[in-house]
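Please check this chain.
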Amino acid sequence: MKKALALLLALAMIFALAACGQQAAPAPAAEKPAEEAAPAEEAAPAEEAAPAEDENLTEVQKIIKQAEGMTMEELARKAIEESNGQTLYGVGNSSRGKSALPLFIEYLQSLDPSYTLEFDWQQPKNNKIFDQLTANSTKGTGTFAVTLIQDGNQIESKMVQTGILDTFIPKEWAEANGVDAATYEGYLPLQTLNKVFMFNCVGDKTYDNVWDFVAEGEHGQFMDIDSEIVGKNFLYMLTAPQYAGWLKEAFDKLPAEEQAYFQPTINELKGDAEDLGLDANGAYALAWIKLWVGSYNAQTDDGPICKNLTDKSAVDQFGLLVYSKLRSIEETASASVNNVKVAAYEDGYEGIGGYGYCHYMFVPDNSPLPWTACAFIHSKGGYDEAGEIVFPNKNDRGYDWWTTTGKLVLEDPEYCADAAFTVGSWIEMLDKYSAG
């Protein structure tokens, strides 16, 4: 973060000096033919057309539009003017917002030592963040200034389409990614998290194909799709043509005797795939989903899954969980990160290695501190200390590797929102495995 602060402090304030004062006076009418005077009089409405474009924007959206053309330091000074001595309330699925705010305040104080800001960061459980933000949206001026939120499906359908949350795209982020903030379609990712297939390697059992995880008798540990909705988004995304194609390719690499186990289920679901409007490989996606939902051992959190898998007693067990949980494992006589392997890292592994989803940053449309929210997002949005998009996992091979060789399924909020009404309804009718 010292490097980040140094980078921020190094940014020079860039002013676009517009001719906003006096303009050259038109020539006296006596010096111009009468027919030339009319266009000069008609020019005035044209000059007022720009503000008219903002008529449909809310007050917060107007501020965001201005903020997207500003550098970090310009935004920081706006934030100092707006929020000095106040309290910022934030809400998120992650505590990262809470840990980042003191560093943000420290940066603002480097510009103005007299600046102070208190903050309160809430982290609701059981996906209640959407209820909180919806209730907050009914106020003229809301309580929450900024949010850090996951689950692209509900963000799209419940927060963005309804106008509850607004997207702010920082100037430097847009430039670094070669996009235009005004026309960018998407949300601002703070970080990408990936859940990957990992298995206990104390015994002799291996998993070298994504279909091995839904084979007869397998019961992988996984956070229940009804308690963590991003897990359901993963299943929705499997029906997208690219990922259904990956499942078909992996199936084709299986030995004939293993294909024979899955083929009846695939054949059974060809009609459903057609009814749901899926492509030619849709039946393979539906078959994998059905077998997964009917076999996974539902858990309440990734932490206990990781703790269990890394114990030497968990022979022949596997799970689909956030790789970063390995950081919390304390090496003991019975537990070690060396007791697990990441399936996608193994030579000869075929098929999907896991799935990725983002934590996104938004400004509530009734934010009480919109300039400060934009400045905070600008200081954190999508960057690590080197200015690169963060992909924070222990010994991770990197975003580029995972989204190509590692075949990571990436959440697409718009696709998930659409699939929730079709594939989602189909999933709701599937029988789930009960460990009891």
